[in-house]
Each structure stands twice: as C-alpha cells, then as structure tokens.
Amino acid sequence: MKTNQRNLLVVLGHPNPNSLCGHLAETYVNAAKESGHHVNLLKLSELKFDYNLYAGHKKDIVQTLEPDLLQSQKLISEAEHLVFVFPSWWASMPALLKAWIDRVFLPGFAFKYRKDSPFPEKLLLGKTSRIIVTMDAPGWYYRWFNKSPGVQLLKFGTLEFCGVSKVKVTTLGEVRTRKSKHFLKWTKLVESLAIKGE
Fold it and tell me: Which of 6, 76, 14, 67 has the alpha carbon at shortest distance from 39?
C-alpha cells in the first residue's frame, strides 16, 4: 500500500455523463484507482433530489434530505480531497451542480453559524480540493474579463467558506475549436493529477 494513498471524491457536475467532463471524471477515477487511492465518483445527473432549497436555512422549516443527498454528505465527510469537474455555462456552473451544493452544503454539516458574528465555524477543515472546469472561451478571457465567476463561487463562496483549503483550479478552454491532440493532452494532465491524488 502506498504511503501517499488518499481518500478521494470526484463530483461530476455535467448533466450529461457522456460529455467531455464525463470523460475527464472517469479518467481521473481510473487513474486514481490504479495508483492505489480510494476514490468514489458522484455523477450528479444520476441523483434523485429536489433542486429547490425551498426552506432556505430556516430552522422552523424542515426539508428532508433525500437518500442520494445523505449519501453525498457521507462521501464528502469521508473524503480527504474533493475533485469537481464541470463546464462553464454563462460563465458559471450548471444548475444541477448549483442545486446540489444548495441542498448538500448545509448549516450543521458544512458550516455552523456563530452568534453575533459574520464568520462561520468551518466544519470541513482538513480537506483539499481541485476544480477542473471546461469552457468554449479562452482561459485568459474567463479569468481576466469574466473574473472567473463559476470558480469564484465554488472556491471562495462555498469550499473555503466551509473550511476546505488549498483549492486548486485547472481551466481547459476553447473546447469547441480544439483538435484531438489537445483532448489527449488534457487526458494525460488529468491522469497525472489523479496519480498524485491532487
């Protein structure tokens, strides 16, 4: 058994598992397993849950978590490293991924409000993360002109807010015009990340 073996969770946020994102997620999972890591894959398109957080975070209204969301929380709790794979749509993330975050990263699980303080108690401390995002736009345009809203939302607004640290980002741009050699290069890149558990 390798000393650097990690417990990994890959979250596929594309509604179509047969997409480029689906290929990259499967590539990561296979390479990670071959390298001795323990890895789970969550294909959000296969989960059954209400996308609408109708109760918000109100304590007097209970919105029961569906079994797939309870399993999601279990896998997040057990994982040391979280890998998110999704496309940038309208400079953000697909509604599926946003809905899953809304329903899963709840007070009492991912963070806890503090009385008379705007800063929460972070309940996901000790975990790290990698965001792999694909897009038709050039990476430089997404970063400098769009200001990376989808990544900002996930990295700062969710993960670091809840205590996840060392959130690294891999941006794969200009998907629509890329040739097969670029997709092969991206596959190799994702495999290298998985081998290291990053």
Answer: 6
Domain membership of residue 107 (yes or no) is: yes
Nearest to 63 by CA among 71, 73, 55: 55
Token pair listed for 144: 């400098």
Total domains in the chain come to: 1
The per-residue pLDDT for range 53-84, each reduced to its tens digit, is 987 887 777 789 999 999 999 999 999 999 99
Domain range for 109: 7-196
> Any idea which residue has 């809905």 for tokens?
99
Is residue 80 within 8 Å of residue 128, measured between CB atoms? yes
CA distance 4 to 154: 26
| Per-residue three-class SS string for 77-118 | HHCCEEEEEEECECCECCHHHHHHHHHHCCECCCEEEECCEE
User: CATH code at 22?
Assistant: 3.40.50.360
Q: Quickly count: other Cβ atoms within 10 Å of residue 109's Cβ.
A: 15
Model pLDDT for residues 141-179, shown as the tens digit of each residue: 788 887 788 999 999 999 999 999 999 999 999 888 888
